[in-house]
Amino acid sequence: MHNRVRHRSRKLAATAPWLLPAFLGVASTGHAQTSTETFGDLWSHARLFANASEDAAIKSVVLSGRVQYDYAYVDSGDEEYSDSDFRRFRFGFKVGFRHDLVFHAEAEYAPSEDPVYQKLTDTYIAWSPNDAVEVTVGKQGANFTMDGMTSSKELIAIDRSALTNNIWFTEEYVPGITVTGEVGKLRYDAGYFSSGSANRGFGDSDGGEFFLGTVGYDFDERFGADKAELAFNYVDNEPDPANDFTRPLEQIVSVSFDFEKERWGVRSDISAATGYLGQSDLSGFMVMPFYNLANSNQLVWRYTYVNSDDPNGVRFGRYERELESGRGDDYREIYFGVNHYWYGHKLKLQSGLQYVDMSDVANDGGAFTGWSWTTGFRISW
């Protein structure tokens, strides 16, 4: 078979791979001369208003958002694919009110698409009188699995693992009500969400509902570590053909461990789910060690395995499916990445090399063996 190259270009995105190295050259030079305090001063401009008075009705107004730009190349041996585009572009604001109330509104935009406006993301009202209790009502993140509990602002691999992308609800922001909090080393999260039809607003409650519960405990003192949190997630999702916010998965269990000590650490996840409406039961695991080098550099390695009991139960990742649109039943991934941080997770460059092997016992278009390289610029405020 002849090697075929597929490249998708966009008017706005096409110039970015050439502009990005120039920008990074300036940023790298500036890093040697610019202190963290200088970045802090720059980011402080996102705070539009602040009032420390106890009687003030409005305490603060802060801009929120993130810009994430990717360049990706995928090679399966027979086909190649490359593309550059905005991975995420979100913008909004937070308003802090008296009596520990916060209103947050944020939306997803796609500068290279028509229409530019895509959908609401975080849009909620939260009440947090203390660390032990926070009640949130509105469209918000449904957080479970290791990577699903990690904001896209703070991922240490350039994208979430295939385990999370198959078992977590990748729509991410779902209308519901949650109660979360921390009591000593114990963390909890209980939520009730709509699984119904997704749209560009809040969605429609015309399908089922799901319950999400999380309990985590940090054993850092026992291990002499900076962090050693063991977390348990459970999801009970009501099956319904109208469910758009969720995967067709009914029961989900995930156990994760997040460990960090001095310069090194490891994140891991073991998850399983039962399917409905033709979706096979799924199970798998992910392990992701990392090491923090000098000069704000970080090395990340990840191994992911996902298996479905029946054929065609496992989905490909974001860029792999550009070459292979089918599904398989046995997915293996090896990832190696390098990150550079100018201002923590708020300003960073990530790059990762990934090898993927997917088997397909049905032999109907889901088999894949290949590698990919993705690099991305991340900024958030």
Describe this structure in words.
9% of the residues lie in helices and 54% in strands. The chain has 381 residues and is mainly beta. It has one domain: Porin (Beta Barrel).
Care to give the gist of this entry?
This protein has 381 residues and is mainly beta. 9% of the residues lie in helices and 54% in strands. β13 (264-275) and β14 form a beta hairpin.
Strand and helix order = EHHEEEEEEHEEEHEEEEEEEE
Q: Given the helix and strand composition, which structural class is it?
A: mainly beta
Using the CA coordinates, give the radius of gyration. 21 Å
- How many separate domains? 1
CATH superfamily: Porin
Low-confidence stretches are 1-33
Write the layout of secondary structure elements.
Layout: E1 4-8, H1 16-33, H2 36-43, E2 47-50, E3 58-75, E4 79-97, E5 101-109, E6 117-130, E7 133-141, H3 162-167, E8 173-183, E9 186-194, E10 209-218, H4 220-223, E11 227-237, E12 249-261, E13 264-275, E14 282-292, E15 297-308, E16 330-341, E17 347-359, E18 368-380
Parallel strand pairs: 1-4
Antiparallel strand pairs: 2-3, 3-4, 3-18, 4-5, 5-6, 6-7, 7-8, 8-9, 9-10, 10-11, 11-12, 12-13, 13-14, 14-15, 15-16, 16-17, 17-18
